[in-house]
């Protein structure tokens, strides 16, 4: 190893008391700028990202008949990533921090981060189980599918830990870009290509708006870190106040698109219909979780000084989103092609409106932590039952059928277990017993609006819950109604495929979780309320 050259001291330097130890002090000061990475903190997204690369390479060496192993490896990697959350429970760990000044960090693994990562990784694991049969049955390219799914999940797991605007945007795009390809993965199908193109163009516009907003915020505050931005915004120079306000508005509009909030929801129905059923389920849960976690971080963490502006704006968005979503679902006919997935798509828009209610209430609260916890509780409930509903749709949808709601007519006779599971999931989404967890979550959201003084929003929510009962109960009734009740001779349907082991495991897992949370729904709220910043 080459030794560092020792400096030669001049007489002038010696007169001023300089010694040869000065260069070592400079080296020590420079060494402080090099920090170690907390690998335990970054393990959840890192494990998924490494697994994505492994699957991409392994696919090259596997014969076609063995490519089903890629799905098993992907599910195992997601389960392993979920286990890496356990050592982090009860700790607040940070890495990639500044070494001077405010010592702000770009990656923080706190309770909020772990809660959202649990939702993302758990939802991605269920999606992986749901996808194994569909990938084989629909002959999707296995290597590409599993690589894209893991890549998107890695970005979604990174996003709640991001504590600067640059990392937030990068994580959101890492979660979104593979999703475009997943939507269009059914090659040769017009609906799939159109859905992918619409999703891509809409998302690109939203990303451009978000980046413009981030650049304005950076120009006004001189920082990307959320904590520093929060401190700098109230003291922004009056000449930059308009620039700062515009940046805040544009940044939140970009995240509102990712949550499928109206009027930025127009891509949802066609995208869900054109995508493979597991991809639609993934977008409805993990994609929404990524968008809402980003919206929570920028609103509550970075822009609290603008709460008097974004609070009312989110309240209006919540009312508009739930109304548009529920009215769109109400218009779906039972004989319409792809009606089941389309109804779930509009339902997800309506559910996004309910998720926005506690965030709007956070703008009126001195301590927004409880409102954030309510949003997370509702998101966890929604993730379990919505993935379960999509699992039933994927399990009982005949090969070659167009997925009409009428295809589920009389399902209780041919598939009693699947019909009971779907009925329970729909009742949870509607907020009716025995789906107690759905009722409890809606009451908690309603209470957050009342506590914040948003009585008008609570009334709008109550009306929308009544509207949603119509289409949820209509679909539930179809499950137990004989085909003869249609008033016409029923057309013979293709034989329904037998339930595979992965689909059976998906239904069993989501059903067990829904039953467990319905038995003790208050535990979910207590768990998520602890997700303090």
From TrEMBL:
It catalyses: a quinone + NADH + 5 H(+)(in) = a quinol + NAD(+) + 4 H(+)(out). GO terms for cellular component: endomembrane system; plasma membrane. It is an enzyme of class 7 (translocase). Keywords: Cell membrane, Membrane, NAD, Quinone, Translocase, Transmembrane, Transmembrane helix, Transport. Residues 162-463 form the NADH:quinone oxidoreductase/Mrp antiporter transmembrane domain. One of its GO terms (biological process) is ATP synthesis coupled electron transport. The chain crosses the membrane at residues 42-62, 69-90, 116-135, 142-159, 165-185, 197-220, 240-267, 279-303, 309-331, 343-364, 376-396, 417-441, 453-480. It is found in: Cell membrane; Endomembrane system; Membrane. The keyword Transport applies. NDH-1 shuttles electrons from NADH, via FMN and iron-sulfur (Fe-S) centers, to quinones in the respiratory chain. The immediate electron acceptor for the enzyme in this species is believed to be a menaquinone. Couples the redox reaction to proton translocation (for every two electrons transferred, four hydrogen ions are translocated across the cytoplasmic membrane), and thus conserves the redox energy in a proton gradient. This is NADH-quinone oxidoreductase subunit N. It comes from Streptomyces qinglanensis. The lineage of its organism: Bacteria, Bacillati, Actinomycetota, Actinomycetes, Kitasatosporales.
């Amino acid at each position: 190893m080459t030794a560092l050259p020792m400096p030669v001291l001049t007489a002038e330097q010696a007169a001023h008391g300089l010694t040869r130890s000065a260069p070592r002090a400079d080296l020590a000061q420079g060494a402080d700028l090099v920090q170690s990475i907390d690998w335990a903190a970054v393990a959840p997204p890192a494990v998924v990202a490494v697994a994505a690369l492994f699957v991409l390479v392994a696919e090259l060496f596997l014969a076609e008949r063995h490519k089903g192993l890629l799905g098993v490896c992907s599910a195992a990697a997601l389960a392993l990533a979920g286990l890496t959350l356990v050592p982090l429970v009860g700790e607040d760990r940070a890495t990639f921090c500044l070494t001077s000044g405010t010592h702000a960090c770009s990656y923080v693994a706190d309770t909020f981060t772990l809660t959202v990562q649990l939702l993302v990784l758990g939802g991605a694991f269920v999606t992986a189980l749901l996808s194994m049969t569909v990938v084989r049955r629909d002959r999707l390219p296995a290597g590409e599918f599993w690589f894209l799914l893991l890549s998107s999940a890695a970005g979604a797991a990174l996003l709640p830990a991001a504590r600067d605007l640059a990392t937030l945007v990068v994580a959101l795009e890492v979660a979104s870009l593979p999703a475009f390809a997943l939507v269009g993965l059914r090659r040769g199908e017009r609906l799939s290509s159109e859905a992918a193109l619409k999703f891509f163009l809409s998302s690109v516009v939203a990303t451009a708006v978000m980046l413009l907003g981030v650049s304005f915020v950076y120009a006004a505050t001189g920082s990307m870190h959320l904590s520093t931005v929060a401190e700098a915004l109230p003291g922004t120079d009056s000449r930059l106040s308009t620039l700062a306000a515009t940046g805040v508005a544009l940044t939140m509009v970009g995240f509102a698109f990712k949550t499928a909030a109206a009027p930025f929801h127009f891509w949802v129905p066609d995208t869900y219909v054109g995508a493979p059923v597991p991809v639609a389920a993934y977008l409805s849960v993990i994609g929404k979780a990524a968008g809402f976690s980003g919206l929570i971080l920028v609103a509550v963490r970075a822009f609290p000084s603008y709460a008097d502006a974004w609070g009312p704006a989110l309240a209006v968005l919540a009312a508009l989103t739930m109304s548009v979503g529920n009215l769109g679902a109400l218009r779906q006919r039972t004989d319409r092609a792809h009606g089941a997935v389309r109804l779930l798509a509009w339902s997800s828009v309506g559910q996004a409106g309910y998720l926005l209610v506690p965030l709007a209430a956070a703008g009126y609260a001195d301590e927004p932590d409880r409102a954030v916890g309510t949003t997370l509780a509702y998101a966890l409930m929604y993730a379990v039952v919505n993935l379960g509903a999509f699992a039933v749709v994927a399990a009982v949808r005949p090969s070659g059928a167009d997925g009409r709601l009428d295809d589920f007519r009389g399902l209780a006779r041919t598939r009693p277990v699947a019909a009971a599971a779907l009925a329970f999931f729909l009742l949870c989404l509607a907020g009716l017993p025995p789906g107690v967890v759905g009722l409890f979550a809606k009451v908690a959201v309603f209470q957050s609006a009342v506590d914040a003084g948003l009585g008008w929003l609570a009334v709008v929510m109550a009306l929308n819950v009544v509207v949603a009962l119509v289409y949820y109960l209509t679909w539930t009734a179809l499950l137990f109604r004989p085909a003869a009740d249609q008033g016409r001779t029923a057309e013979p349907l293709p034989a329904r495929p037998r339930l595979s082991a992965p689909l059976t495991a998906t239904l069993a897992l989501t059903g067990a979780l829904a039953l467990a949370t319905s038995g003790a729904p208050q535990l979910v709220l207590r768990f998520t309320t602890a997700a303090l910043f």
